[in-house]
Specification:
Layout: H1 2-25, H2 29-54, H3 59-86, H4 98-104
Length: about 100
């Protein structure tokens, strides 16, 4: 059980790292919200599963915490995205292909 718990903790750390990297690398606030929500939530759930395997007596509390994360994380990211959209923040668009504009002109 110790190895399984350690593996879940390692996977959780990888997802948390990738989520943090996505927060830095994404071009706009809407992509950053999505990265933070999906990757970091999955990382936190893996952390909780790893702790559950290391401390089996805590499973009920960890399941409640995981359920709370699964409910609140998407709701909060949706509320943030809506607030940014109402505030007038425009979603990022990819720049036009330069080769096609040179050929037309």
């Amino acid at each position: 059980m110790r190895w399984i718990g350690d593996l879940f903790l390692l996977v959780g750390a990888a997802f948390a790292f990738l989520g943090a990297l996505g927060l830095i690398r994404m071009p706009d606030v809407f992509n950053r919200i999505q990265t933070g929500t999906k990757a970091v939530t999955l990382g936190a759930l893996c952390f909780l599963a790893g702790i559950g395997f290391l401390h089996p007596q805590w499973w009920t509390k960890l399941v409640i915490i995981g359920g709370f994360l699964l409910v609140t994380s998407p709701v909060s990211s949706s509320a943030l995205a809506r607030a940014f959209l109402i505030a007038g923040v425009r979603p990022w668009r990819a720049p036009e292909d330069r080769d096609s504009t040179l050929e037309e002109g």
